[in-house]
Structure formats: structure tokens, C-alpha cells
Design brief:
By secondary structure, the chain is mostly helical. It contains 19 helices and 6 strands. It has a two-stranded antiparallel sheet. Strands 3-6 form a two-stranded antiparallel sheet.
């Protein structure tokens, strides 16, 4: 832990940041954009009773809505203009990635470089609007049927309410999509990831206060709270270690002579991450499994008996839920990795540029070798994700631990933090190089 802290301090040289004007502007822009996002999570949709919504979400906090509310920074629970969050954009991105494996047109665009990437991004934006419209209409209709202990969630239900709710929700999602792109272009870090990150971290003080209050009232023992803090530190350290782990495959390029000069002959590395799929498998698996629990919670015992039975067996912390959740995480880990990394395309690209793996023939043999290595790396990564997903679930199912301590939230927070720190460090290095170049030019003029 000491070495990790020293490395972080070395990467984040605050004195150097103060001298880097461009980096300061980017940091201030990122902070301002995130403040705008947080303010928007408190602007309610017109026609919705906030007190009734709070009552309803308190009753269904353990379902899929609880997870989506966490990813939306609490905006869904308060039913604000950012209630859908950035999830429609993420879902559209995943769908487009899936379609690139079956659509020749999208597959060709993917190979066209920057121009193709822009077209795919445009299709993703269109898909985001479509998904947000469908989800917004579903939420508007669902809100009209929701009732809490204080009455109906919608003050004046009807066609006009549905129209304004859909427009508001879709507009909020499109604005967040635009804001995320602006952070990526003019700020520091990945904008979409930082929006989700800020929503999770903003709930940290409430989660800590809730945990300490549980300890004060005796619901949680002091020993358990200490154990919980130690476990969080251990899990975060474990996540950092695994997320930085990669298998570096040596790639050699042949020498070639152009005139009287020799080019090539140098070697490089093809890095394969241990966890290529990231947090996507955990989101997919938990979304599918928590859906029956959420539907049963909304029906409040009025639905069919079989739905209540399924919801009982799939309750958070139940053995069947744990088994299916772990299996779902492992399955989606292999499934998503197969989508984002194609060994055949990688082998073809290496062959096209004259690169080869020592001891492996270019072409088919290289693709088989990459698939062999990736399968074994993904196996370890899938087990790692399953452990990260299930250990917090055991605590949540057996004690009143805040939802914040879920494996999904911790994985997102750690990944985004590492990525942002790396980008800040790269900006500092670029600033240092610019300073050295200026000094060299000044010395050259004096000489």
C-alpha cells in the first residue's frame, strides 16, 4: 500500500499541475461540467411528487432500480431530468458493438479508421435517442401506476404528462451524452465514465453516515464496521492489481533495407489485459437477475404467485441468486471479450505490417495462439470478476450494508480513478517536454 501511495503521489505532482496552464483549464472544465451534472440530478420532472417517489424507491432499493439509481447518481430515485442517466448511451454503444460482428456494413466502417469511427458514433447517438424514448415512455406509464403511502406518484396523469416526461427524460440523456463528449474533448479523462463515477462518489458521504449510524444504534457492531473498512481497502487494492495486470506478447518486425539504410528489426509488445471486458459483465448479469425482484416489488403481492416465488429465491444474498449471478458474470465476461477482441483481425493486421510473434507462423497460427492466450487470461479475469461481484453481495445479503459497497460500484470507481490519474500524468509529461524544448531553443539562439 505504501508503494502504491508513493506512486500516486509521484503521478499527481500538484506543484507541477499548478504550472501547467492547459492542464489547469482542463481540470476546471471537468469540475464545472460535473457540478452541472450534479445540479441536474436535483431538478425534478414536472408533475411528479418527490416525497411519494422517495417512499416507493425506499421499498424497492434492492432491485434493479437500486443499481440504476446508483449509476444515475440518485437521479432516478428523485425522478429528475437526469433519471435515465447515461445508461441509454452505454446500452446503445454495446448494441452497436454487437452489431459490428453480424453487420458487414458496420464491420467495414470499423476498419475505415477515423471516418468510420465518426459514423459509428453517429449511429450510437441515434440509438441513444431511440432507447431513451422507449425507456422514458415506459417510465412515464409506470409512474402513473405507482402509489406510495402518501398517494399517487403523478399529480395529474394523462397524455400531456407522458409527453412532457418523455421529452424531459430524453433531453436529459442527450444533454449528458453531449456533456460527456465535451469532458472527453476539453477536459481530463473519459467523460461518460466520469459522469457515472461522480454519481457513485456523491453517494459516499450518505453511505458512510448510514454505516456509522448503524454502528451507533447497535445494528452493526464496531468490529464489523472495522472489518468492512479493511475489506474495502483489500478489495480496492486487489482491483488495482488485477486491472493493471496484462500479458505482453512480443511482436517482432523484420529488417528491410531502403537504399543504404536499414529500417525495422525492432520489437514491440501486444498487451492483453487480464480483464478485457471491464465492468460490463457485472452490469449485464445483475440487470437480468434483479428484474423479477423489481417487478414483484412494484406489484406488492398483487402479481402471480410464481413471480413472487421466483423473487423470493432470487433475493439478494440467496444461494440461487449467488450461483446464477456468478455464472452470469463468467458467461458475459467471455461473451463480451469475444466481441471487443478478434484474434483473426489482430493476426491479419500484424501480417499486413510485417509483424510476427517469434516461434509462431503469421496468419492462422498467430490467430490460434492469440485465442489460446486470451482464453486463459479471460478465465482468470472471469473468476476475478465473479469474486469481486459475490463477496460484497454476501455482506449486503446478511447485514444492512449500503448499496454503495457493491462490487460494480467499486470496480467503476477504481477503473475511472486509475484512467484519470494516468491522463493527468500524461498531460504533465507533455508539459515538461514542452518546457525542455523551449529551453533548448533559447539556448540555441544564445549560442
Amino acid at each position: 500500500m505504501a508503494s502504491a501511495a508513493e506512486q500516486l503521489a509521484a503521478n499527481l505532482n500538484f506543484a507541477a499541475i499548478g504550472k501547467a496552464t492547459e492542464l489547469k483549464k482542463r481540470l476546471w472544465f471537468t469540475l464545472g461540467a460535473l457540478i452541472v451534472f450534479r445540479l441536474g440530478t436535483y431538478i425534478p420532472i414536472p408533475g411528479v411528487d418527490p416525497s411519494v417517489m422517495k417512499d416507493i424507491f425506499d421499498q424497492n432499493a434492492g432491485g434493479i432500480l437500486g443499481m440504476f439509481n446508483m449509476l444515475a447518481g440518485g437521479a432516478l430515485g428523485r425522478m429528475t431530468i437526469f433519471a435515465l442517466g447515461i445508461m441509454p448511451y452505454i446500452s446503445a454503444s454495446i448494441i452497436i458493438q454487437l452489431l459490428t460482428t453480424v453487420s458487414p456494413h458496420l464491420e467495414q466502417l470499423k476498419k475505415e479508421g477515423e471516418a468510420g469511427r465518426k459514423k459509428i458514433n453517429q449511429y450510437t447517438r441515434y440509438g441513444t435517442v431511440v432507447l431513451a424514448t422507449l425507456q422514458g415512455y415506459g417510465i412515464a406509464v409506470g409512474l402513473e401506476g405507482m402509489t406510495g403511502s402518501q398517494g399517487s406518484a403523478v399529480i395529474d396523469p394523462g397524455l400531456f404528462f407522458r409527453f412532457q416526461a418523455v421529452i424531459t427524460l430524453v433531453g436529459g440523456t442527450v444533454f449528458l451524452m453531449w456533456l460527456g463528449e465535451q469532458i472527453t474533448a476539453r477536459g481530463v479523462g473519459n467523460g461518460i465514465s466520469l459522469i457515472i463515477f461522480s454519481g457513485i462518489v456523491a453517494d459516499l458521504p450518505r453511505a458512510l453516515a448510514f454505516t456509522l449510524e448503524q454502528g451507533r444504534t447497535g445494528a452493526l457492531s464496531a468490529f464489523f464496521i472495522i472489518f468492512l473498512i479493511v475489506m474495502v481497502v483489500v478489495v480496492v487494492t486487489f482491483i488495482v492489481f488485477i486491472e493493471r495486470a496484462q500479458r505482453r506478447i512480443l511482436v517482432q518486425y523484420p529488417k528491410r533495407q531502403v537504399g543504404s539504410r536499414m529500417f525495422g528489426g525492432e520489437g514491440s509488445h501486444l498487451p492483453l489485459k487480464l480483464n478485457t471486458a471491464g465492468v460490463i459483465p457485472m452490469i449485464f448479469a445483475s440487470s437480468i437477475l434483479l428484474l423479477p425482484l423489481t417487478v414483484a416489488g412494484f406489484n406488492a403481492g398483487q402479481g402471480p404467485e410464481w413471480l413472487s416465488t421466483i423473487a423470493t429465491y432470487l433475493g439478494r444474498g440467496q444461494p440461487l441468486f449467488m450461483l446464477l449471478y456468478g455464472a452470469g458474470v463468467v458467461f458475459f465476461c467471455f461473451f463480451y471479450t469475444a466481441i471487443v477482441f478478434n484474434p483473426v483481425d489482430t493476426a491479419d493486421n500484424l501480417k499486413k505490417f510485417g509483424g510476427f510473434i517469434p516461434g509462431i507462423r503469421p496468419g492462422k497460427n498467430t490467430a490460434e495462439y492469440l485465442d489460446y492466450v486470451l482464453t486463459r487470461l479471460t478465465t482468470v479475469g472471469a473468476v476475478y470478476l465473479a469474486v469481486i461481484a459475490l463477496v460484497p453481495q454476501l455482506l449486503i445479503g446478511r447485514s444492512p450494508v449500503p448499496f454503495f459497497f457493491g462490487g460494480t460500484s467499486m470496480l467503476i470507481v477504481v477503473n475511472v480513478t486509475m484512467d484519470t490519474v494516468a491522463q493527468v500524468h500524461s498531460h504533465l509529461l507533455a508539459h515538461q517536454y514542452e518546457g525542455l524544448i523551449k529551453k533548448a531553443k533559447l539556448r540555441g539562439r544564445r549560442g
